[in-house]
Amino acid sequence: MIEGRCLCGGVQYEFSGEIKELAVCHCDMCKRAQGGPFATNAPIELALFHIVTGESLLKTYFSSEQKRRVFCSHCGSPLFSQRLNSPETIRLRVGTVTSGNIPQPTYQFHCESMAAWFVLDDDKPKYLQGKP
Predict the structure, then answer these.
(1) pLDDT tens figures, 90-125
(2) Which of 6, 17, 84, 115 is disulfide-compatible with 37, CB 3.0–4.6 A?
(3) 80 and 90 in contact (C-beta within 8 Å)?
(4) Which regions of 2-132 does DSSP assign to beta strands (E)?
(5) Alpha carbons 76 and 50: distance in angstroms, whole number
(6) Do 37 and 25 form a contact (C-beta atoms < 8 A)?
(7) Cα 102 from Cα 127, distance rounded (Å)
(8) Cβ count near 7 (within 10 Å)
(9) Domain contains 126
């Protein structure tokens, strides 16, 4: 069981399946939608996904004719996207997962659009809970 929620907690969800694939997308649209250097998405079966609370808070934005992005209208957290030509699958934003098994990324794509400024370097300082 995978459980998750938006930032404010108004939208909570469950996924009764297993995440088998994890994709890191570096396209410009995903970077803008996430507000970060990439988006990390898991394609999952819609039939096994259930909004527990907050369905009335969900809002949809069509970033293209075939792709809708769904987010919490209260806090703005992106929750999932869905392609109209593949309605049985949603792409869950795994940053919203609060419990359950998330595998290592399977692949990355749109790597030509990687943010040049985002580099993980193990020689840099690391902080726990924002403190040195």
Answers:
(1) 999 999 999 999 999 999 999 999 999 988 776 777
(2) 115
(3) yes
(4) 2-5, 12-15, 23-25, 39-45, 49-53, 58-64, 67-72, 78-83, 89-93, 97-99, 107-109
(5) 19
(6) no
(7) 23
(8) 13
(9) no
Residue 111 dihedral angles phi and psi, to the nearest 5°: -65, -20
Kindly report the CATH number assigned to the domain that includes residue 63: 2.170.150.70
Q: Which residues of 64-82 are buried (b: 16+ CB within 10 A; e: fewer)?
A: eeebbbbbbeeeebbbbbb
DSSP state of 131: B
Domain assignment of residue 119, yes or no: no
- % helix / strand / coil in the chain, to the nearest 5? 15, 40, 45
In the chain, the number of structural domains is: 1
Give a yes or no: residue 131 inside a domain: no
Q: If you count them, how many residues does the chain have?
A: 132
pLDDT digits (tens, 9 = 90+) for 50-64: 999 999 999 999 999
